[in-house]
């Protein structure tokens, strides 16, 4: 090869590198500052997150009643809520409980729920998770189901994360989808969900829901769904959802 050819090849090589650089283009800059400052309140996945955990019902409001055992929903809600609290705290979250005893804020249902939401507002909660047990006149119905407020995209995404986590962990016979629901406890603007952990009217599910082991498993699944939600949205500055998040939210 002559010196002239060598120099031509060299020039071609340089041009190629230049064109490749143009085609790849500059990498999009990652935001240097996270969307929200991480507080030094603990280590773990959920450090700096403030989560309101609501054990549904309480006091004279027992909620649904298990068909075979006669146990009130409020009691199981509280056990799952307590297990959820400890799982969330282990991951560094700050948890606000609406109740840790068999109590209520008012015998007036709306006032009682308003007082629970006030706790979320006063505590600066990032999220509201309300724990309930379902019932239905047909004893065949079963399976956990998560509800969110229609039109609230962040809550729909959170509900999708929780629904998936519950199905994965509990392997229910009936795999339900997250659904929009009209509940007063879902009326704040932070991501909010109401979790119906299972049906107290279903004999098999009632038995499971009464055991500490299943309550713990349910709480852990809810924790995992919450962690997944924050992992998906942690660096998002705005409420817009990416295509991947949209897909998840539709589950
Ligand atoms: Zn309930």
Structural account:
This protein is an alpha/beta fold and 251 residues long. It has one domain: Zn-dependent exopeptidases (Aminopeptidase). It is 43% helix and 13% strand. The protein is built from 7 helices and 6 strands, in the order αβαβαββαββααα. The chain has helices at residues 3-24, 73-90, 109-123, 153-170, 203-209, 212-233, 243-249; strands spanning 50-55, 94-97, 127-134, 145-148, 179-180, 192-199. Strands 2-1-3-6-4-5 form a 6-stranded mixed beta sheet, sandwiched between helices. Strand 4 (145-148), helix 4 and strand 5 (179-180) form a beta-alpha-beta unit. Helix 2 crosses helix 6, helix 4 packs across helix 6 (212-233) and helix 4 (153-170) packs across helix 7. It starts with a helix and ends with a helix. The relative contact order is 0.16. Mean pLDDT is 85; it is low at 13-41 and 235-251. Bound molecules: zinc ion.
């Amino acid at each position: 090869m002559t010196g002239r050819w060598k120099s031509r090849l060299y020039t071609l090589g340089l041009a190629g590198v230049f064109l490749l650089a143009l085609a790849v283009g500059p990498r999009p800059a990652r935001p240097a500052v996270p969307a929200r400052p991480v507080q030094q309140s603990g280590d773990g996945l959920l450090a700096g997150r403030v989560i309101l955990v609501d054990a549904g019902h309480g006091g004279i409001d027992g909620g649904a009643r298990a068909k075979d055992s006669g146990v009130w929903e409020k009691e199981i809600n509280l056990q799952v809520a307590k297990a959820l609290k400890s799982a969330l705290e282990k991951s560094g979250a700050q948890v606000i409980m609406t109740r840790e005893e068999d109590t209520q804020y008012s015998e007036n249902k709306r006032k009682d729920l308003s007082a629970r939401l006030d706790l979320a507002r006063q505590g600066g909660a990032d999220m509201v998770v309300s724990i309930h047990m379902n019932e239905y006149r047909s004893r065949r119905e079963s399976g956990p189901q998560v509800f969110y407020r229609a039109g609230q995209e962040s809550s729909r995404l959170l509900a999708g994360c929780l629904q998936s986590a519950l199905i994965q962990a509990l392997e229910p016979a009936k795999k339900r989808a997250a659904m929009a629901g009209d509940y007063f406890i879902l009326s704040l603007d932070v991501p909010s969900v109401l979790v119906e952990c299972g049906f107290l009217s279903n004999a098999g599910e009632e038995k499971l829901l009464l055991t500490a082991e299943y309550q713990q498993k349910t709480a852990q699944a809810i924790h995992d769904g919450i962690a997944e939600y924050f992992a998906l949205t942690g660096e998002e500055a705005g409420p817009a959802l990416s295509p991947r998040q949209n897909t998840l939210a539709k589950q």
